[in-house]
Amino acid sequence: MPDRESDRRLLHHARREALVVIIVFVLALLWVVGYCYLRGYTHTPDSWVVQHGLATPRTPESFQQILGFPDWVFYGIVVPWLVCTVTTLFFCLFGMADDDLGGESQEGGPDGH
Amino acid sequence: MDINLSADSWQVLVAFGLYLFGSVAIGIGAHVYLKRGSFMEGYFLGHRGLGPWMLALTVAATAISGGTFMGFPSLIYSHGWVMCLWICSYMVVPLTTMALLGKRINQAARIAGSVTVPDVLRDRFDSPALGILSSSLILLFLAFNLVAQFKGGGLLMKEAMRLPPAKARFLGAESAADHMLHLTFALPDGTQDVQKTPFPSNKAIYLKERTEVDESEREVRVYFRLGQEVTHKHVKFPPQQVKVPWLARPVELGYLIGLIIFALTVVAYTTYGGFWAVTLTDLLAGLVMFAGVILMAILAMQQVPPTNGLTGLPAATETLRYLEPPEGKAGDLVYGPGPGQFLSVGLAFSFFLMWSLMSAGQPSGMVRLMSFKDSPSLRRALLLVCSYYFVIYLALVIIFVCARALFPTQYLREVGSEGEPDSIMPAMVRHLAHPLVAGFLLAAPYAAIMSTVAAFLLMISSSLVRDLYQRTFNPKASNRSLKAASYGVTALVGVVVMVGAINPPGFLQYIIVFTGSGQGCSFLLPMALALYWRRSTRQGVFAGMLGGFVAVFGLYVLGWIDSYTQAHLQEHHQAVLVAQEADKPAPEEPGLERSLQNTLGWFPGWGEKRPDSFAPLYPAGLDPLVWGLLFSLILTVGVSLCTRPDEERARRYFPEEPAASA
Q1: What is the pLDDT of residue B659?
Q2: A-chain residues within 8 Å CB-CB of B475?
Q3: B231 and B266: one domain?
Q4: Under an 8 A CB cutoff, do B113 and A109 touch?
Q5: Quick check: is B514 in a domain?
Q6: B640 and B577 within one domain
Q7: Do B348 and A60 lie within an 8 Å CB cutoff?
Q8: Which one of B39, B245, B502, B536 counts the least CB within 10 Å of its CB?
Q9: Is B507 within the bounds of a domain?
Q10: Sign of CA dihedral B275, B278, B284, B285
């Protein structure tokens, strides 16, 4: 009989961690696709995003770069990537719980142990 | 046959050979290790003993396949900075692939002693039907994907060897429609062959009188005028070809030799060493790739010519800013959506889901998660993988942005008689480094393909031997006969795939994307819900799995039907115009195509312009995978709620909760 208490703890932790992953995923998605669409795509002057002041039309003349990256790549991809990496580091150093995964089942594997 | 290799190629091959030798030695070592404990668990799971480094690099190396080093670089080279957005969801891939399901799937596998992904699902719901469905889906997808990966391996080996082209005679060149230049050659056996090469830009003019033929290098240099400047491209003589008895068309000699070498090494060490060998070679491959791309990125940045007072990467970006790609205008290489409307925002969204969620849904990745030792291993592996991806993908983008600045037009996708490989990666490696170093750098992508193939081979044989043979037909099979069956099936599958890859279809990229998203949509949500949602039922998971598959598969098939229909209707339209001009009666409309158009015309995405005739439909501008995920979610949840969960199983996997009142 497996240890019910440790199984219960693992399930609880795993659910909490899965929730964190989903939240980070959604935030990253919104930041990256949203920012890059508004700042990195060439919009025509009459499109609604430009008329509502959300985006500016971009041309080779208005191009800027930061450390060799186009500005929108830097703020829309490199920075969130770094943030995600740091978040992941913190998450696995301090956020994730250590759990007993349970032993190998005695009844399960037909090839026996 | 002419197989005199240049000194350069020999050095590349020596480095390659050393690498392969190392891999095979690892296979032998692993075989010795296998003698301990239960054969099945050792062969397919490595006795659940993966520590952090092993787990990290094996997950990373399985995700990185031939596409990462062959297809992706040439896409960066031709589309510029927008590719950063295309790939960037790798920022969350470590979390989605490892932290989302990792602990729980490992626990579930231990609860029942499951060895494969279908095993886990079958045991969770006590449902043989679920086991068989998931095994069959895995088999179907992997068989397709393996052919594509084998082709990648063969092409890389061909690039490493660089057999000289055939002793042909150049007959002449002429520019054809859509800015392609056709060069005709007479082959030694009396037949003719045509090499096609695209113009460096839409405005380029071909300078016929300046064409030079270099007999010793066996290449033709063609010159173009671009405004005030004159540029040139190198076009190789056609490759040497051999007849294969059962194929109508001849096959390239270099590719055939490459494919055979690839198949023999990978099948041999996978069969012999099992999971442990694959994991150890993953470790080696992961380290070689990591060192390789960092070295290349540094070398590439040093080589970029200074522009407007800038050097290194800023200079490369500055060059790309004013460069005019063949399908677009200046600025397309530094802004979205890229040349030729490459990455619309809908597709950018789809690709974000593609890498992050689809890699989480791959059974070959899940199986790795079933094999780690303890949860500190998982945490440390996560830490390693997230730094690993950050460095590798950023470095790749930097290398090939620099490559575009170094070679503004020279390597834009060449189309040879057999369809040339994406050649910028090998070309850049040879440009940057000494041949011996180049050999090791080329060994990196080769290693990536090898480890992907090895993982897939194991998945296929585990599906056949464990899920179908042992669990369905012969539960009492002895360790000895299972062993024989595992070796035999692994080797047999390898050989069959190799024969298939001798003449692979031309639309490989779509097959890879199709199998990736098909598997992801079939497995991710059903598996996640089976593990985390107590109320899920076997019928729900079955329906969700099938639904995800059908949605993706359906959109691809509809895409092919659509391309067929539109092409024929277009043809007919042209014929009508011609007939009208000549005052003849209009030809009859093709009946099948018309009725297809009438019955399916309402379908979202039908008849829209797509990048390729093998591309799927993109309803609402979104990739099939988005629809597949949606379908699979609705079906898994909906059908589960309509059916009764198995209380006894639920209690076993969900210890804490009170019995659901269903």
Answers
A1: 47
A2: 110
A3: no
A4: yes
A5: no
A6: yes
A7: no
A8: B245
A9: no
A10: negative
Tell me if chain B has a CB within 8 Å of the CB of A80.
yes
Q: Which of B207, B238, B269 is the last residue of a domain?
A: B238
**Yes or no, beta carbons of A41 and B41 under 8 Å apart:** no
Sort out which chain A residues have CB atoms less than 8 A from B99's CB and list them: 17-18, 20-21, 91-92, 96
State the residue for tokens 């990666």: B425
Spatial distance between the Cα atoms of B410 and B406, rounded to a whole number of angstroms = 9
Q: Give the minimum alpha-carbon distance from B102 to chain A in angstroms, rounded to a whole number.
A: 8
CB contact B330 to A (< 8 Å): yes
d(CA B662, CA B444): 54
Q: Tell me which amino acid residue B301 is.
A: M
Residue B502 is predicted with a pLDDT of 83
Q: Which of A29, A68, A97 shows the shortest C-beta gap to B317?
A: A68
Q: How far is A111 from chain B (nearest CA, A)?
A: 7
Q: Where are the beta strands (DSSP E) in chain A?
A: 65-66, 69-70
Is residue A81 predicted with pLDDT exceeding 90?
A: yes
Between positions 62 and 91 of B, the ones with CB within 8 A of A are: 81-82, 84-85, 88-89, 91
Q: Give the pairing of strands B169-176 and A69-70.
A: unpaired
Same domain, B157 and B174: no
- The low-confidence residues of chain B, meaning pLDDT below 50, are 414-421, 659-662
Residues of B in Cβ contact (< 8 Å) with A21: 92, 95-96, 99-100
**Cα A3 vs. chain centroid, distance in angstroms?**
34
Q: A82: which chain B residues are within 8 Å (Cβ-Cβ)?
A: 390
Burial B196-226 (b: 16+ CB within 10 A, else e): bbbbbbeebebeeeebeeeeeebbbebbbeb
Residues B142 and B203 in one domain: no
Residues B356, B482: one domain? yes
Q: What is the pLDDT of residue B524?
A: 95
Give the pLDDT score at B415: 43
Between chain A and chain B, the number of residue pairs with CB atoms below 8 A apart is 205
Q: What is the ipTM of this complex?
A: 0.87
User: Does A89 contact chain B (CB < 8 Å)?
Assistant: yes
Query: pLDDT value at position B221?
Result: 83
Task: Establish if B133 belongs to a structural domain.
Answer: yes
Number of domains in chain B: 3
A29 touches chain B (CB under 8 A): yes
Backbone angles phi, psi at B50, to 5 degrees: -75, 125
- Among A22, A41, A109, whose Cβ lies nearest the Cβ of B337? A41
Handedness of CA B61, B63, B69, B73 (dihedral sign): negative
pLDDT at B4: 65
B536 touches chain A (CB under 8 A): no
The reply to whether B379 and B447 lie within a common domain is yes
Residues B489 and B465 in one domain: yes
Cβ contacts of B316 on chain A, cutoff 8 Å: 68
pLDDT of residue A106: 43
Q: pLDDT class for A35, splitting at 50, 70, 90?
A: very high
* Per-residue pLDDT reduced to its tens digit, B488-520: 888 888 888 888 888 766 666 677 788 889 999
The radius of gyration of chain B's CA atoms, rounded to the nearest angstrom, is: 26
Same domain, B470 and B496: yes
- Give the number of C-alpha atoms closer than 13 A to the C-alpha of residue B146, restricted to the C-beta side: 29
SS (H, E, C) B131-174: HHHHHHHHHHHHHHHHHHHHHHHHHHHHHHHCCCCCCCEEEEEE
Write down which residue in B238, B262, B282 finishes a domain.
B238
User: A12 CB near a chain B CB, below 8 Å?
Assistant: yes
Residue B213: inside a domain, yes or no? yes
| Predicted pLDDT of residue B66 | 64
Task: Assess whether pLDDT exceeds 90 at residue A29.
Answer: yes
Q: Which domain holds residue B174?
A: 169-238
What is the reported pLDDT for A109?
38
